[in-house]
């Protein structure tokens, strides 16, 4: 018999838990007496379910976009939370009955409160399928009409505790729901149960990002990249994203700057008995504030796969028994090959260098004496094998080792030890060089600080938001003489000291530190006391940098070295200069203009006595 929902007359507002008596009938449901004898059945019959409402906010201005209804059970008995309720319902095989009862009480309460906003209601895929199959949506529509709720207000939020077993049925159920003007949302995407296929086939209007990806977002680069990937998928499927579990101002600010439209979490508002007209003032303050989030950056060397830049040569293979004449024929047939791999089955065991082999093969009488002999004597039986997923750092040791024959012989590319092709040594060197240069634009390999690309992107984001900020350009005075005198290793130590000191005088999550290259650094300040930070950087660096000089030079107050024209002169101890430019809304078009103004301030700072200069009027005048 079809499912029917019976709703009692609405109780007065502010009465005890508002749930009308529910009688559930279904051809496949337990008998009513069995339901009533169960713990869940008694909770339903005794009207001990009630909803709380948590707002979903617009991250552009902090206004309330919608509410999610969250069901609660009796305060006593350990069945207050949804997890406990549904665990008990699962034991009693009453999940469907509990979900329908939750739907009834939520709609009833929403209608009693005479709310006109959008309402998200949780329902499992299996229950939605069964609801459509056994009773259609007419009972639900009657509930909506009974309580004066427009169907366009309702969003059914699919929550999955197990993988969807009947995807076609769910797709059809979603179509039926949409025909009535009700939207579909997908809950907790990314928790392992809400799959990309589910998103692709059901095509929900809203997808809620699981709180795992939003918690501590401001300190996890991988989570930021995951959310950016979800944004691209949402564009493909024309869906809106809701970030769940927002609990800190830094995470909220970053989600806003990433362009996530909606958010939900304790920082915005906790669930309450009644819907809210506004979220917490502190959350609104974060959303409307012009401060720009500092994206977490990767603090490690480049890990790019160099084979993304290479074309692996498909070379024919030889065996240990292959004759020298056959090897010569292959080299003549394939003039572009620098070597031939020797294999046993599909496992490489050696490599024959083209130049070395042909030099001997072309000698007088060689073919007559050795042509029909096996080629094994000309093979390097310790070839360098590299997996096709090797990254740059894996190969640096090879390229800088004393044994350079691999640059001539090349490399055999393998996949799980099986032969896949050849690469020339010069190709590997070129690829490693290009990849490291590209990687340095993202993260400097010496300090692991953000490079030119992240610096530019951060400044452009601040310009786009109309934020007032300060850019400090850090540069060393008399660094070349120190580098020439003590060598690059100690020079690198000096550069790392700049990074260490600067990192200690910026405010995390507000100020951005980047390494342009060499001894040039950029700090983008949003902290109010930025000038104090600059002066403290200069003072601390100058004191610590002096200790990097040999004692004799330090006592002399400098070192004697050649200047850029080749003349000997005494250079003072290395010190730090900082040129600052104040960036106000509308005064600069792009990051390049800001960088040029900061560079001008830096040149003025290097000429000043205290090592600091500020560009007060965007290039019009410098204050020293």
Strand-helix topology:
Layout: H1 32-37, H2 39-45, E1 50-58, E2 64-72, H3 82-91, H4 95-112, E3 118-123, H5 125-135, H6 138-146, E4 154-158, H7 167-179, E5 183-189, H8 196-202, E6 206-209, H9 221-237, E7 240-243, H10 249-258, E8 262-263, H11 281-288, H12 324-333, E9 339-344, E10 347-353, H13 354-361, H14 366-370, E11 385-387, H15 392-399, H16 405-409, E12 411-415, E13 418-423, H17 425-442, H18 452-465, E14 469-477, H19 479-486, H20 488-503, E15 512-517, E16 520-525, H21 530-546, H22 551-556, E17 558-562, E18 568-572, E19 575-583, H23 591-607, E20 612-615, E21 622-623
Parallel strand pairs: 2-3, 3-4, 4-5, 5-6, 6-7, 7-8, 11-12, 19-20
Antiparallel strand pairs: 1-2, 1-8, 9-10, 12-13, 14-16, 14-19, 15-16, 17-18, 20-21
Quickly describe the structure.
The protein is α/β, with parallel strands linked by helices. α4 crosses α5, α4 packs parallel to α6 (138-146) and α19 (479-486) packs across α20.
């Amino acid at each position: 018999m079809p499912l029917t929902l019976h709703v009692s007359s609405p109780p007065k507002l502010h009465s005890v838990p508002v749930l009308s008596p529910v009688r559930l009938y279904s051809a496949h449901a337990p008998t009513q007496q069995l339901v009533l004898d169960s713990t869940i059945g008694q909770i339903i019959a005794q009207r001990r379910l009630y909803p709380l409402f948590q707002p979903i906010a617009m991250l552009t201005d902090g206004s309330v976009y919608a509410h999610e209804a969250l069901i609660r059970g009796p305060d006593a008995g350990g069945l207050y939370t949804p997890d406990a309720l549904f665990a008990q319902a699962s034991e009693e095989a009453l999940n469907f009955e509990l979900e329908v009862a939750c739907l009834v009480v939520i709609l009833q309460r929403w209608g009693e409160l005479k709310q006109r906003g959008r309402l998200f209601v949780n329902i499992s895929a299996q229950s939605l399928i069964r609801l459509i199959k056994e009773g259609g949506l007419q009972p639900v529509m009657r509930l909506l009409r009974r309580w004066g709720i427009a169907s366009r207000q309702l969003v059914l939020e699919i929550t999955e505790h197990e993988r969807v077993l009947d995807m076609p049925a769910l797709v059809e159920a979603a179509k039926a729901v949409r025909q009535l003007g009700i939207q579909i949302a997908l809950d907790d995407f990314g928790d392992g149960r809400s799959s990309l296929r589910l998103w692709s086939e059901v095509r929900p209007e809203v997808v809620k990002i699981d709180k795992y990806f939003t918690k501590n977002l401001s300190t996890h680069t991988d989570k930021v990249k995951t959310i950016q990937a979800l944004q691209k998928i949402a564009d493909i499927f024309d869906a809106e994203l809701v970030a769940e579990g927002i609990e800190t101002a830094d995470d909220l600010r970053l989600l806003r700057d990433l362009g996530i439209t909606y958010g939900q979490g304790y920082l915005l508002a906790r669930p309450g008995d009644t819907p809210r007209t506004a979220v917490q003032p502190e959350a609104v303050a974060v959303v409307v504030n012009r401060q720009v989030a500092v994206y977490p950056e990767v603090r490690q060397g480049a890990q790019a796969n160099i084979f993304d830049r290479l074309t692996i040569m498909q070379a024919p293979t030889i065996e240990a028994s292959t004759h020298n004449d056959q090897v010569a024929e292959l080299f003549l047939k394939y003039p572009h090959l620098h070597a031939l791999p020797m294999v046993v089955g599909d496992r490489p065991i050696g490599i024959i260098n083209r130049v070395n082999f042909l030099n001997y093969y072309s000698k007088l009488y060689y073919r007559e004496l050795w042509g029909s002999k096996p080629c094994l004597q000309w093979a390097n039986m310790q070839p360098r094998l590299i997996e096709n997923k090797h990254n740059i750092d894996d190969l640096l040791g090879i390229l800088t080792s004393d044994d350079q024959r691999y640059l001539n012989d090349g490399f055999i590319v393998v996949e799980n030890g099986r032969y896949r092709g050849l690469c020339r040594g010069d190709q590997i060197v070129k690829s490693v060089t290009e990849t490291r240069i590209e990687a340095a634009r993202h993260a400097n390999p010496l300090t692991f600080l953000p490079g030119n690309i992240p610096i530019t992107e951060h400044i452009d984001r601040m310009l786009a938001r109309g934020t007032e900020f300060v850019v400090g350009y850090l540069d060393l005075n008399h660094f070349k003489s120190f580098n020439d005198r003590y060598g690059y290793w100690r020079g690198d130590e000096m550069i790392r000291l700049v990074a260490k000191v600067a990192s200690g005088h910026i405010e995390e999550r507000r100020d951005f530190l980047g390494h342009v290259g060499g001894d040039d650094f950029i700090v983008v300040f949003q902290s109010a006391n930025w000038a104090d930070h600059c002066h403290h950087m200069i003072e601390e660096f100058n004191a610590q940098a002096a200790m990097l000089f040999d004692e004799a030079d330090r006592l002399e107050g400098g070192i004697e070295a050649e200047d850029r024209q080749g003349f000997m002169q005494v250079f003072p101890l290395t010190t730090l200069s900082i040129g600052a430019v104040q960036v106000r809304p509308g005064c600069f078009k792009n990051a390049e203009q800001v960088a040029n103004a900061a560079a001008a301030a830096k040149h003025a700072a290097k000429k000043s006595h205290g090592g600091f200069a500020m560009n007060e009027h965007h290039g019009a005048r410098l204050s020293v």
